[in-house]
Amino acid sequence: MIEINLLPGAKRAKKSAGGGPSINFGAIGAAISARFKDKWLAGAIATGAVAIAAIGFLFVTQRTRAGQLQEAEAKAVADSVRFAEVLLDRMRAQARRDSALTQLRIIKAIDEERYVWPHILEEVSRALPQYTWLMDFGITGAQQGTTPAASIKTPPPDTSRVRKAPKEIVIPRDTIRLRMVGRTVDVQAFTRFMRSLEDSPFIEGVTLMSSDPKQESGKEVKEFILQMQFTRPDTLLLRRVPLLPQR
Asked: Does the global pTM surpass 0.90?
């Protein structure tokens, strides 16, 4: 076939390898550049397109995040209600425990004060030597039993949500001071008597106030005055026996 170039100076277009129509990307770019000759306008349009895409992406992600946070909030509220009930039950149990401990302390204090005199008389009679006798023995000083432990009132249970530190209940304990007046004919036995009293777990602070010679049935004796104080030993040192004989 004979081809005639009717446009002098124009280059002949090359045929594609497959013989079909070809796409001239250069021509397309040139056409776009010719239409948008202002580069700033093209940049603004591209920036707007990127901004729209970014806004759409952020909207989708934030909406998904908001849904997740709402689910977490609902779960946290449910857990908070459940834990609040558990803490309230725990506070009530602790209040009942504190009340029971207070009552036990009061009962223990009352029990420890029940047999003060039997302990004292047992220790004195055990330490009293031969040829030594007592003429007067009793409590001296302040009156006893002014504030007994039985008068303490148990505080009501604290079930408030704001847990306060439990107040330590002070059990009143009377200071029991003793005064003993006796006579002896053996000074060495009297010295052993004082040492035995001092070694007792129920008596402390044995002090000799005076020692004067006296006449008893025509014989010279020593009249002594002792002061001492009752002490409460550890419960492990107490020996408890039944009042009634076991059958």
From this structure: no
